[in-house]
Amino acid sequence: MPIVNVVCGIIVNEQKEILVCQRGEGRSLAGKWEFPGGKIETDESAESALKRELHEELGVEISIVNSLTSVLWNYGQTEIMLHPFVCRINGGVLRATEHQAIAWCTLADLQNYDWADADLPIVDEIQQLFRGELHFSP
Fold first, then answer.
1. Which listed residue, of 83, 96, 97, 137, carries a Cα 20 to 30 Å from 31's Cα?
2. Distance from C-alpha of 79 to C-alpha of 43, rounded to nearest angstrom
3. Over the range 4-41, which residues count as b (16 or more CB within 10 Å of their CB) and which as e?
4. Is 31 left (phi over 0), alpha (psi -120 to 50) or beta?
5. Integer angstrom CA distances of residue 112 from 4, 20, 106, 115
C-alpha cells in the first residue's frame, strides 16, 4: 500500500489559541476534528503544500514557525504520513470552505474534541510543547 504524504498546520493566534477544523459531511472521517491541511502534490515541498492548502481551505496566508514530529498512520485502506507544522496567519480572511466548522481553542480544550486518529499524536506533542516539556526555537 503506497503512503500518502499529507501536511497539516497547527495555527496559533496571539492569544495562544489553536485553530481546529471539523471534517465535512460526505468526506472520509466526517465529523472528526483535525488540523487543516492536505495532500502534498508531486514535486511540491511540504511547506509549499501547507501554504497552498491553507489558502485553498481557509483563505489565509501563513508563515511557518517550526515542524513537529511526522506521524505514520494506517487507516486500513489508506496509509498516510502526516507532516505537522506550527504556523501563524499573516493575511487573508479566515473562512471555512471545506470544513463544516472551525474553532479557536485553548490548550486545555484540545482534549474535548473527537479527533481523527492520525491527529492524536500531534495533539499530545502540542500539549507537551505548550506546557514547556518540549522546546523549539521559533
1. 83
2. 20
3. ebbbbbbbbeeeeebbbbbbeeeeebeebbbbbbbebe
4. left
5. 28, 11, 10, 9
Domains and their CATH numbers in the chain:
3-130 (3.90.79.10)
Write down the pLDDT at residue 138: 41
| Interstrand relation of 3-11 and 79-92 (parallel, antiparallel or unpaired) | parallel
pLDDT recorded at residue 115: 95
Question: Where does 28-73 have alpha helices with state H?
Answer: 46-58
How is residue 44 written as a grid cell? 511540491
How far is 62 from 50, CA to CA, in rounded Å?
9
Distance CA 98, CA 36 (A): 10
Q: What are the residues whose beta carbons fall under 8 Å from the beta carbon of 30, sequence distance 6 or more?
A: 23, 24
